Amino acid sequence: MKPTAEQQCAAIRQQLADYNYQYYVLDAPTVPDAEYDRLYRELQKLEQQFPEFITQDSPTQRVGGAPLAKFAQVQHRLPMLSLDNAFAAEDLSAFSKRMRDRLDLSGEFSFCCEPKLDGLAVSIRYENGQLVQAATRGDGYTGEDITSNIRTIRAIPLQLKGESIPAVLEVRGEVFMPLAGFARLNEQARQRGDKLFANPRNAAAGSLRQLDPAITATRPLMFYAYAVGQVEDPTQLLDSACHYQRLQQLKQWGLPVCPEIQLVTGESAVLDYYQQILTRRAELAYEIDGVVIKVSNLAQQQALGFVARAPRWAIAFKFPAQEMLTTLLDVDFQVGRTGAITPVARLEPVSVGGVTVSNATLHNQDEINRLGVQIGDKVIIRRAGDVIPQIVGVVLEQRPEHAVPVQFPSRCPVCQAHIERVSGEAVARCSGGLSCQAQLKESLKHFVSRKALDIDGLGDKLVEQLVDHALVKAPADIFALDMPSLLGLERMAEKSALKLLQAIKQAKTTTLARFIYALGIREVGEATALNLATHFASLDALAQASNEQLLAVSDVGSVVAEHLGHFFAEPHNQAVVADLLAQGVHWPAMSKVAATEQPLAGQTVVLTGTLQSMGRDEAKALLQRLGAKVSGSVSAKTHVVVAGDNAGSKLVKANELNVPVWDEADMLQLFQQHGLVDA
Ligand SMILES: NC(=O)c1ccc[n+]([C@@H]2O[C@H](COP(=O)([O-])OP(=O)(O)OC[C@H]3O[C@@H](n4cnc5c(N)ncnc54)[C@H](O)[C@@H]3O)[C@@H](O)[C@H]2O)c1
Ligand SMILES: [Zn+2]
């Protein structure tokens, strides 16, 4: 039987009450705000249709949650209310129209536009400029006494400064946790194996509502004031001000106020503000979930007054939610270049922060265990700023009966080799090496990439085809490719095959640094490869280097040294290298310059423009071997500027300052003289 409207209302109210309790009292919500908001709107709609079913305790009529008994209680002299929400421009026009009708006004409103900080509301009471009490919002009428905790937040003055401070001033604002602090706090918790905070709001609420203020003191909390509550002020300074001016006044008394706040006229300016803040959302140091639009004129505010749980003169214009609920459809296991197995969540596509998300990384087995996630679960996806989407939680209450635990494979899904997990490391790896097609493909993609051997026209798709057709089983096979084998591939015409063979031939001439990088040794990036090349000057010297010799290279620590040692000790890798050399891969010989032979010692050199014979980094490394300090900007202290093609302002500056200028040939000549490159 279909439930009646009254039963439906009751069921939603109960569900929202549970969510409220988890969110406000426990500081541990189980569903994203967007899910709460969806259900809330459903209730609002039902209640609009059937006003007879509205109850006093409906979440649409009340604010927040009951204060925790473990804190002393504080009665708010003026209630601390919530805000109505707008989700689209239409909601904003409706808001303006409602107010205009009520006030019988035809002109535009002055709106104070403020970021909607995602933290928790607090009230701070100053008497004669001294902080005497602080409280949470609680249920809007009664809050929790958190005075000692608030006193630990350095941004909040204990004593106001300046002139005409009211006898009593109740400041309202948001306590929140900046994103950097949130990331740090969670990283520490992860290292200790503790539970993580789902988002900065929960972290702020959980940190502030501690019985022990010493704990609060260690948490990176911040505060911005956004309103004035009760005032007793013989000078009546605040009475004649508008809301925006009041905030400016609070700032003068030493209270932090958000610098993004703006006073604007009319609705279209509000939309501009919304857009502008939305564009900059990811740049802000703290999380916001929208903007708050307030009528700034206090007489108008007064005339508009309040409804059940929110003022009529303000609205929260929400941004697209950064956390959404969706379903985990499956987990795939991807094999990376070094064999690392990464579980990837396949999700029911969902729009998060304005972008459709259908995959999210699950990192590793530890992460899966920590989340306790099962296939079929409802999961919370978070996508904040440019950070890749994450699964931050599971809604256990909504786990379906058919949910199945995620089975981490014991064999590589591609080559069936054993998966190894080094104790103390979170990563599991396929032990197949280059005999694993997945690792082979990723290694080859790396091998031919721009900063490695840089083979033009050998893109990812083609690499996969070459491996799938068994034309390439190791990097050296690339150099054995010929016309007939290439023409056997789909969509490969003679002309492009010819071009590709040409590019492959050209790539045989490379540099030692590129070659080392191309080998894909773990944690040996471009910069490290270059350092190794300049330091050892030959592949043999590098391959035979002892651990101590490796550690002597700048940028090489014990982990990298160990990876290098392992790599070159492995017969399989020795064969890969030998085959490449046998195929004619080569590079200009480099001789090690004796330490005494440093003709550029003590000189500052600036490189500018495009070089023809080598990259900027290579030139820099060679200059450094000759003793030069390579700098990025030209000054009177510069000894030489090396100008390649299209040199611009640095060359102009060098000429202005009479700094000697070399062209590329001058530099090459010096390198040749010292045997750094072939003549
Ligand atoms: N996930 C859950 O289970 C769950 C449960 C309950 C509530 N919630 C979330 O909380 C919302 C309701 O909470 P609420 O009543 O605190 O309302 P709200 O967060 O939507 O808006 C009111 C609050 O905004 C804050 N605020 C931030 N910047 C402000 C500014 N410049 N001026 C004025 N206020 C500012 C204040 O703390 C104020 O109390 C819901 O819409 C939902 O998103 C989620
Ligand atoms: Zn494998």
From TrEMBL:
NAD(+) binds at residues 33-37, 82-83, 114, 137, 174, 294, 318. Zn(2+) binds at residues 412, 415, 436. CDD domains: BRCT_DNA_ligase_like (cd17748), LIGANc (cd00114). The active site is at residue 116. Signal peptide: none annotated. Its cofactor is Mg(2+); Mn(2+). Its EC number is 6.5.1.2. It is an enzyme of class 6 (ligase). It catalyses: NAD(+) + (deoxyribonucleotide)n-3'-hydroxyl + 5'-phospho-(deoxyribonucleotide)m = (deoxyribonucleotide)n+m + AMP + beta-nicotinamide D-nucleotide. SMART domains: BRCT, HhH1, LIGANc. Pfam families: BRCT, DNA_ligase_aden, DNA_ligase_ZBD, HHH_2, HHH_5, OB_DNA_ligase. Belongs to the NAD-dependent DNA ligase family. LigA subfamily. DNA ligase that catalyzes the formation of phosphodiester linkages between 5'-phosphoryl and 3'-hydroxyl groups in double-stranded DNA using NAD as a coenzyme and as the energy source for the reaction. It is essential for DNA replication and repair of damaged DNA. This is DNA ligase. The gene is ligA.
